[in-house]
Amino acid sequence: xxxxxxxxxxxxxxxxxxxxxxxxxxxxxxxxxxxxxxxxxxxxxxxxxxxxxxxxxxxx
Length: 60
What we know:
The chain is α+β, with helices and mostly antiparallel strands. Helix content is 25%, strand content 27%. The protein has one helix at 36-50, and strands at residues 4-9, 15-20, 26-29. A three-stranded antiparallel β-sheet has the order 1-2-3, covered by helices on one side. It starts with a strand and ends in a 10-residue tail after the last helix. The relative contact order is 0.19. This is DUF1508 domain-containing protein. Residues 10-57 form the DUF1508 domain.
């Protein structure tokens, strides 16, 4: 099964997204957004940025 983005309202009433792997494990969580539309736009931004993104090692 493919992974999926979930958009939800947190305890503070803000919208967030989480990316879940096919096995249901959460692999990424987005920041808080004022609107559901903003959270969905965050999902789309991650999708665009991740396509072909290299893995880079850093010292910190």
